[in-house]
Input
Amino acid sequence: MQRNLVSPLLFLVLIFTQFASQANESKKYKDVEIINYGIFAHSPDNGATWINPVSDKKIKGNSASPVHVKSTRKIPAKYPLFFGFEYQLNNLTDQTTTISTEVTHPAINLADGSTSTGYKEQSKFLILNGKITAINGYLLENQAEAAPGQWTFKIKHKGKTIINQQFEVKTE
Output
């Protein structure tokens, strides 16, 4: 009879350990918040005016930051169109931090004859009041870049993926 009790007990310990490790991992990055996602207005004149790609109307503004227009994960394959997400990372203790971005996308034929299926970049941020706020996305600037399919954006902080956002660029 003791043999039957050991197996369920061992099973419960393994289950508890699995949940505890998942809880610790999610708790580690509980200070990440997605503020907006989807389509953002595009500024052809560095923030003096913005073009709303949903309505094609101009929006007045004096900001270099894109303006959120529509929450969606289905992005029309047209250009110029900026899509992505705005996020905030809270409770940081350093004065600066580096964020890595990895983007994978359907094949895009570049002007030099090569093909791109993604890119990686790093950005250094100044931490103000224990947080950073950033917008990450892609500006479809021409027909070749409006490649239909899945686009994935991974944001990494200190080597760990903290955000994984996916969008589907679709032909209309």
